[in-house]
Amino acid sequence: MADRLTLSRGAVLLGGVSLAAAMSVRRLSPLQAPAAASEAVEVTLTAAPRLFAPFAGISYQGLAYNGSIPGPLLRVRQGQRLRVRYVNRSGGESTIHWHGMILPNAMDGVPNLTQPPAPDGGTFLYDFVPQPAGTRWYHSHVFPQLIKGLFGMIIVEDPHDEHADQDLALVFHDVAKAASVDAAMRGISTAPMVDPFGSPERRAMGPEEKMGDEVGYAAHCINGASYPKTAPILVRVGQRIRLRILNANPTQTRYVRLAGHTLRVTHSDGNPLPQPVEVEALRLGAAERYDAWFEVNKPGAWLLQGLSADPMAFQQAVVVHTPGMEGATPLGSAQSLEGVRSFTYELAGAAQALGTRPRVERVDVRRSYVLGGGRYGSERWTMNGEVWPNTAGVIVRRGDRVEVRFTNKTDMHHPMHLHGHVFEIVEIGGRALRDPLPKDTALVDPNGGTMTWRFRADSPPGRWLLHCHNEIHMMGGLMTAVEYR
Ligand SMILES: [Cu+2]
């Protein structure tokens, strides 16, 4: 199939990929020469059905951008304009949401809220200057197209970033069992919880608790392939490697570990951390990203893995090896988090003692949401007892300082996502963060857990969705909006 990324005069295309590259770990091209302010990146993205077979015995009728799951890796320099001509041949209405971007509301890609969806066979032009810099992503905002494969990573290069010997994009994604998606939507799924032992998700559940809302997955992938078909990453002793990791799973949290190494986390959801944190494992809620670095100190072969209690979890792995070690048995990690120092917001934000409060600041708009619902056999997931579109929004004026607080009365973590803004986490479970964490998606703890965000309403005016990024919960009503008046 022809590569449908197209160029037009005066435009540059960075990070374009061929279909063949879809099956390998994509090595990002080195930084390009700075582009002139007048230059734009022009891309055509075509969504269409694709049979996806990452593992023997798995043949999944999915959807793909330009024939590839995940979609092409897009790469632009800070300040460059991006023009994406979206050609929708998905078989239904569709949009593209630019997750983590601050952009004109009409470019945000929410069907019937910010734009009329492109009809099947139709097109839509997305035209904006991607910002802020960092690791972001794009995906359909029409259910269940994200679940079926319409997602990809977009990187906005920051000219001030530290040098990396290799800069690697790793999209963690999974093949959902369609019947379990339907059952989860009705709250009667029999798919088990697969979070690893020692994880907060596992600890939140009672031993006899009936789930009903879990989605089951038939295959686990990184960049379009399952281990052992994932393309290995060749590294050299002395190199410093930057990993940009996205959890594109529509419902599950992913833990990621590189055997034999610690990871230095520098960015959360593409935004620089107050200071880097050293951990043994990353924790990524649905839609979260982390930039994590490691140094190669000795020859060897190691597995970079997604951890879960799913018996097929081994599929989500790639081999990282030094020259000559491609035949060696790679060192792996146990599928457990017991005794493992994994990333937490509290660690990265230097959480203070219980009972501390975020620093006093003028706040113009304050909103509290109780997250509820999700009982066995129910399809309702609520905010203050209501489901979208009846949930009360956050009404702001441009320039307002806004505080949003969540209290999660359900027994599941919720990856809450705000469109069009970067917020700061300032409080978790009654502990203030000394260094507020800049993010666009954050997991709110269950069973009465709290989290407070602050942000400035200085994005382009419009209606910006605020919702759970677990697709089942979002479709069950766990959604509202920040509205500029
Ligand atoms: Cu949720």
Topology:
Elements: E1 40-52, E2 60-65, E3 74-77, E4 81-88, E5 97-99, E6 123-128, E7 134-139, H1 145-148, E8 151-157, E9 166-176, H2 178-185, H3 200-203, E10 217-222, E11 233-234, E12 240-247, E13 254-258, E14 263-268, E15 271-279, E16 281-284, E17 289-295, E18 301-307, E19 317-321, H4 345-348, E20 351-354, E21 365-373, E22 381-383, E23 394-396, E24 401-408, E25 414-418, E26 423-428, E27 431-439, E28 441-444, E29 449-456, E30 463-468, H5 471-475, E31 479-484
Parallel strand pairs: 1-4, 3-8, 9-12, 11-19, 21-24, 23-31
Antiparallel strand pairs: 1-2, 4-6, 5-7, 7-8, 9-10, 12-17, 13-16, 13-18, 14-15, 14-17, 18-19, 20-27, 21-22, 24-29, 25-28, 25-30, 26-27, 26-29, 30-31
The chain binds copper (II) ion.
Residues 414, 468, 470, 473, 478 line the site of copper (II) ion.
